[in-house]
Specification:
The complex is a heterodimer. Chain A is mostly helical. The mean pLDDT of chain A is 92. In chain B, 18% of the residues are buried. The termini of chain B are far apart. By secondary structure, chain B is mostly helical. Classes of the chains: A mainly alpha, B mainly alpha. At the A-B interface, helix 1, helix 3 and helix 13 of A face helix 1 of B.
């Protein structure tokens, strides 16, 4: 019997799952994308896609995980049929590949937290050089190792003693820190200008299809919907647990945190920036680190004339980022570990394999920004394909049957109506098709050799790496499914 | 602040934060109901 543990309550499940959803994407990526896409003009489509992408897919993941009690490989094989186990394997692989470099990112946040607490962060005014000195040294590997070791220890302890205990502390702490930072930002002089930009729409920008596609992308990347991570935690939800209401709480909770983070960053930048605030927020910088690791530290140094106050706010900001990254990383490590447990391995052995592999395969991303950018691009877009595979498995099962028997089945507090059938059958596949085509076609604009698989960010490298993984899993499908379902 | 800013703020916060508060209150209600029925 593989199933041994459950989350002890609805609130424990929600805290753990919201820990997946709230990651660096909320605090780090969201404000930058809002700035690049016209502030308030971006928020309107972003809310729309919360309703027609994130929440339906979170419902799907909860339902598939709860009904199958297996990690993505087995779960998709059980839901869509044994012939389609390779789709689940792809979902698991994409999240695992992201885990390799996400552990590096978690290490960066830890390093900056330590630098802020020690005051080292304020010994410079050139934060680009500070970042480059750090990222070109061997330090990212050390912090990557620490992050992976800490998370592996949590996952080794299991669901109730590990994930549940840790998220019960980290997630409320993270929310408290964000509220403290929001209050500080609101009380900064001239903060109202940031609010105005954040919420003022420009009708011309709103009509630009790219803003809508960026809003969909943000929802796909920062809610954790379609990654297979929520599906993995749903394995451990009690049979009498609700699906639809919990899924809505995760989606709306995640986007609420994004708004808090967005307002905080916008107010801080507009209030303290001595140069063009918009240019600064929009800057991607190396590996998209511009705003968070290069520009914000300089602003924290200007919050007040007191070194201690500035160090305090910088410390809690990077601590919040570290907490957000850690809870998300935990879910990625658990997904990989659970996949191996489904193959018949004991948790201890599985987590050892995952942690050692994760550390070793994360090293190239820790050393090379180009490799990091390549992996972020390939598997970031790959996640959209993962979302499509989840929707496909429900379509194969029968959407209406799935809705009535699984989502609205035992334990459901609220019943989902027939609108769900339309979203899964038509809207999700449409969004996937448009989004993947747009990203791949767009890459031709920034890389004339769009077909070259050895370039960092283009269509060629995506299709090449996805192709290798997909062909491998299709060939191994029978073996993988047998190992998972029958062992 | 112009009227468009106010409408957008109301739309975004109304749906996202309003939705969160609504779903949270529903979840609390169902949990209370379950505990009053003797469920753990």
């Amino acid at each position: 019997m593989k199933q041994q543990e459950f989350f002890s309550s609805r609130w424990a499940l929600i805290l753990a799952t919201i820990g997946i959803a709230i990651g660096t994407g909320n605090i780090w990526r969201f404000p930058r994308i809002v700035a690049q896409n016209g502030g308030g003009s971006f928020l309107i489509p972003w809310v729309v896609f919360l309703l027609i992408w994130s929440v339906p897919l979170i419902i799907a993941e909860f339902a598939i995980g709860k009904s199958s009690r297996l990690a993505p490989l087995g779960a998709i094989a059980k839901t869509a049929g044994k012939r389609f186990g390779w789709m689940g394997a792809f979902i698991a692989f994409v999240s695992t590949a992201i885990m390799f470099y996400y552990s590096v990112v978690t290490g960066w946040t830890l390093r900056y937290f330590i630098a802020a607490v020690s005051g080292d962060l304020f010994n410079t005014t050139d934060y680009l050089s500070y970042w480059e000195k750090f990222s070109s040294s061997s330090q990212p590997i050390i912090y990557h190792l620490i992050s992976m070791a800490v998370v592996a220890f949590v996952i080794y302890r299991g669901i109730s003693k590990g994930i549940e205990s840790v998220t019960k502390f980290l997630v409320p702490s993270l929310l408290l820190i964000l509220i403290v930072l929001l209050i500080r930002a609101v009380t900064l002089p001239n903060a109202i200008e940031g609010i105005k930009f954040f919420f003022t729409p420009d009708i011309n920008i709103l009509m630009d299809y790219k803003v809508w596609l960026n809003a969909l992308t943000q929802n796909a990347w920062d809610t954790g919907a379609g990654w297979g991570l929520i599906l993995t935690y749903a394995i451990y939800m009690r049979q009498k647990e609700d699906i639809a209401l919990n899924a809505a709480l995760i989606g709306f909770g995640n986007n609420s945190v994004s708004i808090i983070a967005g307002i905080t960053i916008f107010l801080t930048v507009f209030s303290l920036s001595s140069v063009d605030a918009m240019t600064q927020i929009s800057q991607s910088g190396p590996a998209n680190t511009g705003l968070t690791f290069i520009y914000l530290p300089g602003l924290f140094a200007k919050i007040s004339s007191s070194f201690l106050v500035n160090a305090f706010f910088a410390s809690i900001f990077f601590l919040a980022l570290f907490f957000a990254a850690t809870t998300s990383l935990m879910s990625m490590v658990e997904l990989s570990t659970r996949t191996l447990i489904d193959f018949g391995l004991k948790r201890r052995r599985a987590i050892t394999i995952v942690a050692v592999t994760g550390f070793l395969l994360g090293i190239p991303s820790a050393l090379s920004p180009v490799f990091f950018a390549n992996q972020d691009w390939v598997w970031g877009v790959g996640l959209i394909l993962s979302g499509a595979f989840i929707a496909f498995s429900i379509i194969r099962y029968g959407v209406d049957k799935f809705r009535r028997e699984v989502i609205n089945g035992m334990g459901s507090d609220v019943k989902i109506g027939k609108w769900y059938n339309v979203v899964i059958k038509y809207l999700i596949p449409l969004q996937v098709g448009v989004l993947i085509s747009w990203w791949l076609i767009s890459s031709a604009a920034w890389d004339p050799e769009w077909w070259n698989p050895f370039h960092a960010e283009n269509a060629g490298t995506c299709l090449f790496q996805w192709g290798i993984i997909l062909v491998t899993f299709i060939l191994l499908n029978k073996f993988l499914v047998r190992k998972t379902l029958e062992d | 602040m112009n009227i468009l800013t106010i409408i957008t703020t109301a739309f975004v916060l109304g749906i996202v934060w309003g939705g969160l508060i609504y779903f949270l209150s529903r979840a609390v209600k169902y949990e209370k109901l379950k505990s009053s029925n003797g469920e753990k």
